[in-house]
Specification:
The chain has about 190 residues and is mainly alpha-helical. The protein is built from 6 helices and no strands. The chain folds into 2 domains: about 15-135, no CATH class; about 140-190, no CATH class. Helix 2 packs parallel to helix 3 (about 70-85), helix 2 (about 25-50) packs parallel to helix 4 (about 110-130) and helix 3 runs parallel beside helix 4 (about 110-130).
Length: about 190
């Protein structure tokens, strides 16, 4: 796996008109985007434990042009990472179009689309590391088990015993017809 490479997110129409380096999607751009996708996948796996599968794409060469299917696969990988990160659209992460068709006259990604691909990767990497601090791990609750067995995973090891009253949810059984106290047993403090 390659290291994180700073994405290019500032392509403009002037780059296209003046035919600058940013105007073309080169092999180095493809390698950077795919490598950064792998980096974000590893970050999500490490911080949340979610395994997001991404397509293993071959590195294009100067004589190889990526097909519409390969481009769609790369974009779909970025979109799957966005969904796994669970970041709200208000933070700037957008849903990406990944249904491009081959052939003349078919819609093709433009500079704004490529900016969006790389911007999503940048935002997911930056925001997910901070959001992972707030993830709630709830473990596996077993129904019908004794209460001590259900709650064994609810006591984090990092909380000191003398930390005072803390809010710890309990896994009770919400049975129809039971009293409000039994159904809301998780609302009590430890």
């Amino acid at each position: 796996m390659s290291r994180w490479v700073t994405p290019i997110t500032d392509r403009t129409l002037a780059d296209i008109q003046n035919r600058t380096v940013k105007a073309f999607l080169n092999v180095s751009d493809w390698v950077r985007i795919h490598g950064n996708t792998q980096q974000v996948q590893a970050l999500i796996r490490i911080l949340s434990g979610f395994e997001v599968s991404i397509t293993s794409l071959s590195t294009p060469t100067v004589t190889h042009f990526p097909t519409a299917g390969e481009i769609n696969s790369m974009i779909a990988d970025i979109d799957r990472l966005r969904e796994a990160a669970c970041l709200p659209p208000a933070l700037g992460v957008v849903t990406l179009k990944h249904d491009y068709q081959p052939g003349l006259g078919a819609a093709a990604p433009d500079y704004e689309d490529v900016n969006a691909w790389e911007q999503d990767l940048l935002l997911i990497r930056a925001l997910f590391a901070r959001a992972a601090e707030s993830l709630i791990y709830c473990g596996a609750a077993g129904a019908g088990q004794p209460r001590f067995w259900q709650n064994r995973w609810r006591r984090p090891a990092y909380i000191e015993p003398d930390a005072g009253a803390i809010r710890t949810p309990r896994t009770g059984s919400a049975v129809s017809g039971s009293g409000l106290t039994r159904q809301n047993g998780w609302r009590k403090y430890a």
